[in-house]
Amino acid sequence: MAATSEQPLPAPLSAEALFDAVGPAYEVAFEEQTDQDASVDWLISELAAKSIRPAKTVDIGCGTGRPVCSKLADAGHDVLGIDLSGAMITSAKERVPNASFEKLDIRDFNPPADSYDVATAYFSLIAGVTQDEIRGFMAKIFGFVKPGGLLVWGTVPLPVESEQIAWMGKPITVSSLAPEGAVDAVKKAGWEVVKEVQGVFKPKGAEAGICKQEDVWEETHLYIYARKPE
């Protein structure tokens, strides 16, 4: 995320409209994220070590389904991807036929308690949400993951509350938490934090045809690996 421009921004898009507009090009812009790939590999390794297969998994804000849903499904797991963008869900169904997908906002996703082995949320709890909602999502996910189950949350860790920015040239309202605030939100929801990984990544928004080169900046990414206590 970046600071707002001195020029007035157009009215912000909803998160749904934003990702409908970006569509499958998002996959190109955000490919080759080695830290994200490593986190999915960790999940697959942990599940294999416990001989959990197929594990029931959900990816919140699944986008096109790649690489997260595809890697988990290819490893033999039962994968559901949810996203509030119809364009993303259409693409995911085409790209990852061995997983299931639903057009659904996390606010409306209410599975039974202790019903999932794994939950992931990569950069999906930023646009169109508040800081309080982010904290609430950590608690909600905790409720539907089984004891011993796993969470990976990827975010852009900045202390931002309902701020309008231009993200890859598109106006959007975002919220996020600073690194220590994000970790604290996970812990207060009841999770045991296993690992924290920070890195930087510059999306290929111009190469993907989403925006101009000057509309792209380097982002700090934080991945929190967590486990629900037995």
TrEMBL record:
One of its GO terms (biological process) is methylation. InterPro entries: Methyltransf_25 (IPR041698), SAM-dependent_MTases_sf (IPR029063). Signal peptide: none annotated. The keyword Cytoplasm does not apply. SUPFAM superfamilies: S-adenosyl-L-methionine-dependent methyltransferases. Transmembrane segments: none annotated. The keyword Signal does not apply. GO terms for molecular function: methyltransferase activity. Keywords: Methyltransferase, Transferase. It comes from the Eukaryota. Residues 58-149 form the Methyltransferase domain. It holds the Pfam family Methyltransf_25. This is S-adenosyl-L-methionine-dependent methyltransferase. The lineage of its organism: Eukaryota, Fungi, Dikarya, Ascomycota, Pezizomycotina.
